[in-house]
Amino acid sequence: MELDNLNSPIDRVDQNQAGTMAKSFLANVFTYMSAALVITGIVAYWFGNDSSLMSLIFTVEGGMNIFGYFVMFAPLGLVLLMSARIQKFSSMTLMALFIVFSILMGMSLSSIFLIYTGGSIFTTFFITAGTFSIMAVLGYTTKTDLTKFGSILMMGVIGIIIAMVVNMFLQSGTMDYIISGIGVLIFTGLTAYDVQKLKRIGAGVEYGTEETNKLSIMGALSLYLDFINLFLFLLRFTGGRK
After folding, report:
1. What is the mean pLDDT of residues 63-83?
2. Nearest-CA neighbor of 236 among 176, 189, 186?
3. How far apart are CA 201 and CA 124, in angstroms?
4. Cα distances (angstroms) measured from residue 50 to each of 43, 47, 56, 57, 72
5. Are 224 and 96 in contact (CB under 8 A)?
6. How far apart are CA 203 and CA 223, in angstroms?
7. Whole-angstrom Cα distance, residue 73 to residue 63?
8. What are phi and psi of 100, to 5 degrees?
9. Confidence (pLDDT) at 5
10. Among 19, 32, 42, which Cα is nearest to 91's?
11. What mean pLDDT is predicted for residues 46-61?
12. Does 149 have pLDDT greater than 80?
């Protein structure tokens, strides 16, 4: 028996500590993500079922007004701002921006209640939650290194964005379904990849520090985006239109 291949008690303690830190870190990440999804869901339902609130975003003719365009593009600006200023902002500032982001996303997503039936929206949400949970567990438990797939998936995201912009002009229903199908696959894979990445980050941080809190918030933002994008792409398949 080769003694070099055996883990010493110290190694086992270190591994246990790393595992405990990773679990604590991910618990915070999922708590922040879940809270943000609850905020988004409440705001989306509130706006989507109140014509007076929807009038703040859409014109009488059904087009989007100036505030509506702000609501649509502001979340992207907040994501870029949080990512670029993570070292400068405090965790409280990042949390406040994350809450504002969640509210704006809810306002933006409220339009789905004008397009799809409420029953199909809730059904798709639970399908998304189930798929997301399975892939999150897979990402946490798998021994396979998913790093090599990360760059491929991110290139896929860029490709989808370009295809969606092109299809805005082509208005092709077939292309829309193809994009949605690819989008489901990409964000399903990204969920597992991001959870594994966050697990590794959590294993190497000190619990309770300011820096760790910042990383928890940004990790929650990353998983939130995976969930929302997966939900929207699935909705194009499972959503019953009014």
Report:
1. 94
2. 176
3. 31
4. 11, 5, 10, 12, 18
5. no
6. 18
7. 16
8. -60, -45
9. 47
10. 32
11. 90
12. yes
- pLDDT for 151: 87
Q: Please name which of 217, 206, 202 lies closest in space to residue 35, comparing C-alpha atoms.
A: 217
What pLDDT is recorded for position 66?
93
pLDDT of res. 183? 95
Residues 113 and 47: their CA atoms lie apart, in Å, by 9
Residues 223/194, Cβ–Cβ less than 8 Å: yes
4 pLDDT exceeds 60? no
The Cα–Cα gap between 70 and 57 comes to 9
Q: Where are the alpha helices (DSSP H) in the chain?
A: 9-48, 51-54, 66-84, 91-109, 112-115, 118-141, 147-170, 173-203, 210-238
Residue linked to tokens 């491929």 = 152
**Terminal alpha carbon distance of the chain:** 69
Residues in the chain: 242
What is the amino acid identity at position 16?
Answer: N
Q: Which residue has the tokens 């809450």?
A: 99
How many Cβ atoms are within 10 Å of 180's Cβ, its own excluded?
18
pLDDT at 161 over 80: yes
Q: Average per-residue pLDDT in the chain?
A: 90
